[in-house]
């Protein structure tokens, strides 16, 4: 599910929209691949756990896009604090660390 071009395009769109809403004039395009890679690495174990949940509790792509938006808001705040209008991969990595394991599907459960 997360390795598809469709998922990558959704990540790209959400990154672009959130960055623009937060006043970022540019963003490093490697951010998209980084977020997709995190999701792909965790997909097998996460989806196995999701199948054990009631259908109404299962998470999917829309939940992943919500997490993209959360990490991008935090990353944009990091960039603003640094006085930049360009969102860097390092901003996203710092945001990911700050929100670790609250961002489904970007963290691997223990």
Question: How do the strands and helices of this protein lay out in sequence?
Answer:
Elements: H1 5-21, E1 26-27, H2 30-51, H3 61-81, E2 86-87, H4 89-98
Parallel strand pairs: 1-2
Report on the architecture of this protein.
There is one protein chain. By secondary structure, the protein is mainly α. 64% of the residues lie in helices and 4% in strands. It has four helices and two strands, in the order αβααβα. The chain has helices at 5-21, 30-51, 61-81, 89-98; strands spanning 26-27, 86-87. The protein has a two-stranded parallel sheet. α3 (61-81) packs across α4. The radius of gyration is 14 Å and the shape is elongated.
Summarize the structure.
The protein contains four helices and two strands. It has helices at 5-21, 30-51, 61-81, 89-98, and strands at residues 26-27, 86-87.
Distance between the termini: 21 Å
Q: Which radius of gyration do the C-alpha atoms yield? A: 14 Å
Outline: elongated
Order of SSEs: HEHHEH
Strand content: under 5%
Number of DSSP E strands = 2
**Overall SS class:** mainly alpha
Strand order of the largest sheet: 1-2
Mean pLDDT comes to 82
Count the DSSP helices: 4
Helix content: 55-70%
Would you identify the regions where 5 or more consecutive residues have pLDDT less than 50? none
